[in-house]
Amino acid sequence: MTLLSETKIEYYYKTATGAVPKFTFPFSNREEYVKWRTAWRSKYADLSKEIRTNKQKRRDAALELKNIDISEHWNTAHAELQRCLAELKKPST
User: Fold this and answer.
1) Given pLDDT bands bounded at 50, 70 and 90, which one contains residue 2?
2) Contacts of 92 (CB under 8 A, 6+ apart)
3) How many CB atoms lie within 10 A of CB 31?
């Protein structure tokens, strides 16, 4: 199965939206795209699992202490989100 050429993609995008596209499809064939998408989904799933695990650990620790400081919890969660977003933006190897 072959992908549409960049020219056809641009044509369909322009026809559908009335705008000139500001993107190009960076993959020359479907196999490259599927390989990249699989790697990205795997990385995203790993990060999501790590976030859930850390969140559960914080919850458990807070319940044990019976002391929850909402601002500290928010700051920790925000810092973790920023770290994970930075991880997603890193170029894949």
Assistant:
1) very low
2) 36, 39, 40, 43
3) 10
